[in-house]
Design goal:
This protein is mostly beta strands. The chain has no helices and twelve strands.
């Protein structure tokens, strides 16, 4: 599992540096203004899942967030503090496939 570097977008703009999605998943920072960019250059869709470590009333788990990224699409997914794992201080991300899948974490 790789940890994505958060790229800060300055007022003058940013040339976003994408990295290949890791087959075992990735981690990134979570919180206000954080966005996970997912670029799917494959000919089939993929599902990106953000783990939700939150529990309500002591035993009710909150479902993970699954986002389908269409073939050839670029998707922006907010990574709010809801996805912050208190054990690691990061959000955990998994992918249904990583073929031709690139990711980047940005902060506005």
């Amino acid at each position: 599992m790789a940890t994505l570097t958060t790229q800060v977008v300055p007022l003058t703009g940013l040339a976003i540096a994408f990295t290949n999605a890791a087959s075992g998943g990735d981690q990134c920072a979570a919180g206000e203004g954080l966005i996970l960019l997912v670029k799917n250059d494959d000919s089939t869709a993929t599902t990106v899942t953000l783990a939700t470590p939150e529990v309500i009333d002591g035993d009710l788990t909150v479902a993970d967030r699954a986002v389908t990224v269409a073939a050839g699409a670029l998707e922006a997914i907010p990574v709010t503090s809801r996805y912050l794992d208190p054990a690691t201080g990061l959000a955990s991300i998994t992918y249904s496939k990583v073929t031709s899948l690139q990711v980047a974490c940005i902060r506005r």
